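Take a sample.
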Amino acid sequence: MPARALGLAAAVVALLLAPALAAAEAGFVARLDIDGVINPVTLRLVGVAIERAEAEGAQALLIQLDTPGGLERSMRGIVQRILNARIPVIVYVAPTGARAASAGVFITMAAHVAAMAPATNIGAASPVALGGGADKTMMKKIENDAAAFIRSVALERGRNADWAEKAVRQAVSITEREAVKLKVVDLIADSVPDLLAKIDGRTVKTVAGTVTLATRGARVKAIEIGFRDRFLNVITDPNVAYILMMLGMLGLFFELSNPGVILPGVVGGISLILAFFAFQSLPINYAGLLLILFGIVLFIAEIKVVSHGVLAIGGTISMALGSMMLFETPELGFRVSWWVMLPTVGMTAGVFVFALGAGVRALYGRQLLGPSGFIGLRGTVRERVAPEGQVLVQGELWRAVAAGEALEVGAEVRVVGVDGLTLRVEADAKGGSS
């Protein structure tokens, strides 16, 4: 009886706690970390995170942000997805020392709840012409468009629209304390649990209606990033894209120089395709790309034409200048690191110089194949040559003929001519004859 009573009590408790447990599970907060430049891969990740959080019944999506900025088109796409999300999106500029600069300002302002960790900053949202090519009038149009966009986003979220416009027009930047004081963000939080506790009970407006957050003690569930997105995020890094391009060019060069090797051509082709995919997401300066291609052409010309190193030096300079200009933008996240650029240029130039040196040595060296390669070689008579017989030259037996006196077995001979597969020999003065 006591056991049955205990079991019945446990069943009643489970039934009573089931709704609460279900509510707690349904009320979890999804989390996505963004660390780095804003690019098309980031846009895809945010879109997938919002869709998955909505589909799984998350109470909100927390985006922990640390970015120096990024592409304007990707930023606009992220802002649109946040503005049209059916669940609250919380942007948390963290960890300590993080920043929300340039494109990060727009994303933070678009959040339903914006928070910052201690010792963080936000601002400097002035647009820049990535890759160059924009005159003064065009830059003014871009600036006005960005200012109007961030002002409309700030007004929609009830934030300081005047400061937001200054961040675009004057590139101002402020600390987390100033941001709260100026109503740029909502609060400062030391950690994610502290943030969830502080926003508990806050009411926000989404496209699905008004939502009251109940986040105190809520479980945080990280959005898993798939292999595909991780891979795409890696290759869209300017340093990786640059290395892929150089590998592709070298691979195709070696395949064209040595047809049939296959492996360099396969590796080079795949590397170039991946590099071109990455270039679609990066602000390419085509003058820099052309300089790199011109440098490759000069290296090839150096192999074909004897210029005493002038073309090789010109190719190295052209490639170095092209590498510096390839991603020449004010955004640090879109530049190729010097620690990547210098070794890559040096290695590429070294490979071509090595190939040049090997070609020159082969050109002026002794020919080892063909009829002329036998002239001057020494051998030994294996079958009496009178006037025909056999001689052993470099470990091989050859039919031989000799003019004049007969050559006995064991005599040392020297090749003086080749007639098809027959060697013309004579007695070797150093070795003697009989």
Summary: The longest helix spans residues 338-364. The two ends are 124 Å apart (CA to CA). The chain has three domains: 18-228, 237-364, 371-427. Residues 16-26 have pLDDT under 50 and may be disordered.
